[in-house]
């Protein structure tokens, strides 16, 4: 049973890393679930402090994931259309066969969203798209770093308790 939990936990870690880039998947939440599954095994001793602290950090990051892009857009004078455009542009950019579509897509999406909101002011739309894009990059980077840290913890715990899995 432990090996099944470890495999499912590892899959959660990988999907969590992908989810740090995809807006539809809760990347840090899935990575934390992978840690929880690892702690449910008999091989890894329970440490509720680690689970509690990592859960708190995960919840904080998930909240900040919504706040940071919105604040970036607001700071640069954007609207909710820019935020929606960023998310739609990310999905289109991931599916489009162009290089670096996941970087170009959110910026273009934010720009088009702001033009949809106010088609007269191109400079404002460009400025708001830049703010939305910077917020998106900061949020994505933060989620990615957290998911990679959780993966590192996961691998370390398996490495540290390797003999307990086969005992």
UniProtKB/TrEMBL annotation:
Keywords: Membrane, Transmembrane, Transmembrane helix. Pfam families: DUF456 (PF04306). This is DUF456 domain-containing protein. The chain crosses the membrane at residues 6-39, 48-68, 88-112, 133-159. InterPro entries: DUF456. It comes from the Bacteria. Coiled coil: none annotated. It comes from Flavobacterium luminosum.
